[in-house]
Amino acid sequence: MRAQASDPHATPPYVLPREILSQFDTSGPRYTSYPTAPEWTANFPREQAVALIEANQRERAKVPLSLYVHIPFCHKLCWYCGCNMQVTRNPELVERYLEALTKEIGRVAAHVDLRREVVQIHWGGGTPTFLDPAQLERLFRALTAPFTVARGAEISIEVHPPVTTFAQLETLAALGFNRLSLGIQDFDPEVQKAVNRLQPYEQTRDLITEARRLGFRSINADLMYGLPKQTPERFARTLDLVDTLRPERLALFNYAHVPWMKPHQKLIKAEELPSVNEKVSLLELAVNTLVARGYQYVGFDHFALPDSELAVAQRERTLRRNFMGYTTCADSDVYAFGVSSISDLNGAYLQNARTLPDYLERMEHDGLPVQHGMALSADDQLRRDVINALACHGHLDTEALGRAHGVVFDDYFADALPRLEPFLKHGIVERTPGAIDVTPRGRMLLRNVCMVFDAYLGKPAGAARRYSRTL
User: Fold this and answer.
1) What does the alpha-carbon distance between residue 446 and residue 387 come to, in Å, rounded to a whole number?
2) pTM (2 d.p.)
């Protein structure tokens, strides 16, 4: 049942005073990991990667697995895109990549205890539905053949409505996919033209209707604020249209304009981008609208209907954050396949080669494609737990954390706590004996709050240019 709308005359709970924006408008990580990828070691030794995988098997033998597959291909370029993707119409390249993926799955599986149940599978991109039905089935069989997939596992895929057919949806449903994630960004035609992504509302509506008819139990839709030509009036219309679709989950991403990292973003006219004040107005509009329409604000950039698995996991404090965003799997290790994909082995991160030619070359020469990696220190793991608690629950039990890691929180973080003072002053966080809590308005500044406890920020020269703006 949809929640009742809030009092239209009441002050919306999610509002940032304009006078504090300059203080918190900075560059920072999105914290899908800690430490973040720029801190990892390049040219990570293959022998060390294998040793970390085998150590994970010994130490985490009873912990379930999550599997991620990256499909980098797209039919056309969306100018805002920050993903690792490649536009191609070369079927031979796609076949070569599928063969490489199959080899990688087999080589990694040789080091994995295959009795560990797989509780989550996710395919991202690029556009995984770039693949035709036969290729989708072939890859799924190759992925699941060596592993033990748990009954009721969450099996999800990202799709782009303009290139996804009903035949593809039927194939995915028959294979066992039960969650669909699709990009919307904005339904306004002028905004769509400005970012080279034309996607009519009716096309999206029909795809969701068919997915639900086929039995997909959860739909996630991505929205984006900060795009060129966006205004509160236009974005309000998009939110109205999204409400008619009623996806179980929503992601509201802050457009990251980083043309020094993604040169194709230079195609976006900088003068058409909203200012910081305008972006915050779009954010406030979206957050308050979605909450008034019954969505639970999970945090960072995610929303969920109250009876969805994501919302329940947050209330039960079993929610986690990793490279797939927020996940309901309370404890699982991630093995990832494909170009640029990242495995999260609890105490280590392993990232595959970030360019397609490098990935293919590594796979065709009988090796693992790992290029970057990091084994976490005790300090890394402590700070990761702090950031995960704040990002997932908006609540940190400092006493429980201290007991778990054998430290006295206030002593250990004596250098960081003074940096928390501005957040306390402006009502972004609250401190009570034994706890730190993020306030409703603070959920819009979660990245900034987490940065207080990041030991790596500010060390390398030019670090700010590695990250997008937090506002």
Assistant:
1) 9
2) 0.92
